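Incident log, structure service

09:12 report received: a user says their structure output differs between two submissions of the same chain.
09:20 pulled the input from the user's history:
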Amino acid sequence: MWMRAVLCALLCVLSACSGSDSAPAGSTEPPPSSSPPPANPPPGGVAGPWPVADLTLYASTQGLNGTIIDAGSDEAQNIWAATPDTLYVLRPGQTTFTPFTASNGLHIQSITDTNGTTVSNITALAGGHSNEVFLGYRGYEATIPPPAPPSCCEPNADFSDPRWHLGQADKVTLNLDGTIAVQRYEFLCDATTNCWEERSARRMTFGHSGTAAGHLFIGFDHGVVHVANDTWGDHIHVETKWHYSDGRIVTKQGEQYGLAIFPNGDLLTASGYGVGAQSWNVDPKAWVLGPFVWAMTTYGPAEPYNNGEHDLDVPAEYRETNRGAAVTSDGTAWWVSQLTGLSSYNHSIAQFDFSQVRHYASVPGLPATGLVDIAADPDGSLWIVDSSGRLLRFDPSASSVQVWPGVSSVRRVVMDTTVTPRAVYVSMGNQGLAVIRAK
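09:34 re-ran on a clean worker, output below:
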């Protein structure tokens, strides 16, 4: 089904812990062909904006070590970056990142069972309100017996198996003294007897403006969860039905890597199997009951609305492998796939029209496959990451593509439009973090 109502209480375990002291001073590596960027906040104590040099690089010289998988800023303009086992923060006025690990209360942990050892490591982050960041983790995705007695969501259900508590998410708050407090989010059951469907976070996005300001959306291995003020409902997802030649029908959904918020609060989701726009509701519990404005598989079929069981019937083994989503200011939804490249649909069309879905397989310089992330610039251009680690800037109006200089081994791109000029955060694995302010 498309979504489930929330009829049971979900667990939220609060834990607080201390981090390291304020980071020591250090040198800031300047961007190529530029002078070192200023590190001090502007007069009046207002945080940010950060250096406005065209390109600023952060790496080991600034205390940023390991493989950077995700990064961004919160509303106080703290810069957050993550490796699989460490969360880093650079506060305005500092020049060296402060690290936080499992010893500071982050839920990076391992478990050993008959299948071997599974490590629950960081997979995604999203900067939130001032001095706040949300972390997602990889959970245990193999099958384990459901809790008993008697089942999920029932009183006294047994969640003692530690595998239930891997993955999922944390809210991390940066204290004035430079330590952190960690609040645990656990999505252990839904409204039926299904248990533990939201195990591993694939992507997170937080609304900093528009109707959904202050709301967090987490894409998991299964569905998408909406969080507001530490409250959440169940989950939603586009669902496909695989039809086999022998008559079997298998339901497939999940791999929610693509998330983007429309100005009116509707949520664009681009998953491993389809794309949809979930209608806005300020209440996360009521949100899961609302319809999709539209939902489709990129190459058909399509449904204009989801007012019930509007499953998308597709051939067996149909996949899209969408890996990122973005929304431009003209109301266009964009998504990228490892299999089918770049596609778009204008969300503002009054009545859904599948013929208006656009594909960009013949743009010179833009790969037709192997695209792994995307972010929308306020000027209408798109920042796209390909599987070779290049950062591309695509101008839809001119159908032109530029390979952006000075960055490499790119894994993820995040746009911050709360500052002027806007900041583009580029996670570059072992090469560190790049911040682009160039127009």
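09:41 both user submissions now match this output. Likely a transient worker issue. Closing.
09:42 reviewer note: The domain at 14-33+48-436 is CATH 2.130.10.10 (Methylamine Dehydrogenase; Chain H). The CA atoms of residues 149 and 157 lie 5 Å apart.
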